[in-house]
């Protein structure tokens, strides 16, 4: 129940942020950060990483970090303009 409430609160913050005129320049960054936070909540709870061995959490985090680094490197080599 706590995870659902936390996800609801984060989503409510995202909706509120969208309507704040002063934050128009950093909307993408804020949404990415909040989405990442929601992703971590869901992964830690529903994939049971919170209750498993730290080795599994490390392996998951290492694989995810490696995938993100490879993705960013691929974008940089294609001059995608996102960096």
Protein described:
- The protein is mostly helical and 83 residues long.
- It has 2 domains: 1-51; 52-83.
- 73% of the residues lie in helices and 0% in strands.
- Helix 1 (2-18) runs antiparallel to helix 2.
- The mean pLDDT is 88.
| Termini gap | 38 Å
**What is the structural class?**
mainly alpha
Point out poorly predicted stretches: none
Largest sheet: none
What Rg do the Cα atoms give? 16 Å
DSSP summary: helix tally: 3
Give the overall form. flat
Strand percentage, roughly? under 5%
List keywords for this structure.
83 residues, mainly alpha, 2 domains, 73% helix, flat
Secondary-structure blueprint:
Layout: H1 2-18, H2 27-46, H3 54-77
Summarize the structure.
The protein is mostly helical. It is 73% helix and 0% strand.
């Amino acid at each position: 129940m706590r995870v659902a409430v936390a996800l609801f609160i984060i989503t409510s913050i995202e909706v509120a942020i969208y309507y704040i005129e002063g934050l128009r320049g950093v909307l993408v960054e804020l949404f990415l950060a909040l989405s990442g936070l929601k992703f971590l909540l869901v992964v830690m709870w529903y994939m049971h990483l919170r209750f498993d061995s730290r080795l599994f959490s490390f392996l998951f985090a290492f694989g995810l970090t490696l995938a993100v680094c490879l993705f960013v490197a691929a974008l940089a080599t294609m001059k995608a303009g996102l960096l």
